[in-house]
Write a structure and sequence with these properties.
Layout (H helix, E strand, L loop, with lengths): L1 H7 L2 H36 L35 H4 L7 H14 L13 H12 L2
Bound molecules: heme C.
The site of heme C (HEC) has 28 residues, from helix 3 and helix 4.
């Protein structure tokens, strides 16, 4: 008993606790970074051919810079479909999830090619990445 008390109150023990608290904190933000890094890879495979992450550049599709929370069909100088202009959507996380799960179902008549990413984890990764844009 006496020995344990000595260990627990030693400065070394205290700094060990501080160090592990730091480690836990680092692991959480590291997890976010891991998610968006996975998302970046999926974005490169599934979206980048048509979407730029650069706010000043529309390619075949509108730029997705700042897309989370943005009104649908609101990027200047991009020729959206009438269906998208009439959708009245705001790109909340839920709507983005539905969009990448089945965009044609969410906005019938959209000009975007059919995308069907039904895997919840893959959706999470892509959402995490879109939030960084
Ligand atoms: C083959 C080209 C193509 C691919 C691949 C593609 N998109 Fe699109 N995307 C478009 C086009 C074109 C539009 C505009 C649609 C319209 O006006 O109906 C669009 C629109 C969008 C919008 C609405 C943007 C706004 O400003 O309202 C989002 C969000 C979006 N795409 C996300 C994605 C994501 C995420 C992926 C990958 C999972 C993806 N797109 C893959 C061509 C593409």
């Amino acid at each position: 008993m006496k020995a344990m008390f000595t260990v627990a109150s030693s400065p070394l023990f205290a700094s060990l606790i501080a160090a592990s608290a730091l480690l836990v904190g680092a692991t959480f933000s590291h997890a976010d970074a891991m998610l968006s890094a996975q998302g970046k890879v999926l974005f490169a495979h599934n979206c980048h051919a048509c979407h730029s992450e650069d706010s000043a550049r529309n390619t075949f599709g509108p730029s997705l810079s700042g897309v989370v929370g943005r009104k649908a069909a609101s990027v200047p100088r991009f020729a959206y479909s009438d269906a998208m202009k009439a959708s009245g959507l705001v790109w909340s996380e839920d709507n983005l999830r539905m969009w990448i799960a089945d965009n044609v179902k969410l906005v019938p008549g959209t000009r975007m090619r059919h995308v069907a990413i039904s895997d919840k984890a893959e959706q999470d990764y892509i959402l995490a990445y879109l939030k960084t844009l």
